[in-house]
Write a structure and sequence with these properties.
5-stranded antiparallel β-sheet; 7 strands
């Protein structure tokens, strides 16, 4: 059995395999979040961030990795940056060729949201 090398936490995202970037997120399968998705009268704003949502190049959420998930792969090289959401959640960008373009796209989105 491979040796566990490290765990995800609020400061360490999972490996970036097939993911453009990660953003801090609450568990989308939390019962209260599911209820809120079905009933607009349910407030799920108190569900805490508890892991990393993997986002693809088209800005689609494609996976959720909870904090404490263990990996046998090497730790990724990454940069944590405050995202464009009002709640200040963090984005984790990989050290990669396309990161500059991704950050520019997010800066544009931040400016649009700030102006609105």
């Amino acid at each position: 059995m491979p040796t566990l090398l490290w765990n995800t936490d609020k400061d360490t995202p999972p490996p970036f395999n097939n993911v453009a970037y990660f953003e801090r997120s609450c568990d989308p399968f939390n019962p209260k979040k599911l209820q809120a998705a079905l009933d607009k009268n349910v407030d799920a704003s108190d569900v805490p961030e508890s892991g990393w949502m993997g986002i693809d190049w088209g800005e689609n959420p494609i996976c959720f990795i909870p904090d404490g998930t263990g990996f046998t792969l090497p730790k990724p090289e990454f940069e944590l940056v405050k995202g464009y959401f009002k709640d200040g959640r963090m984005f984790a960008y990989p050290v990669a060729e396309y990161t500059k373009e991704l950050k520019e796209r997010h800066a544009t989105e931040f400016a649009k949201r700030k102006a609105a």
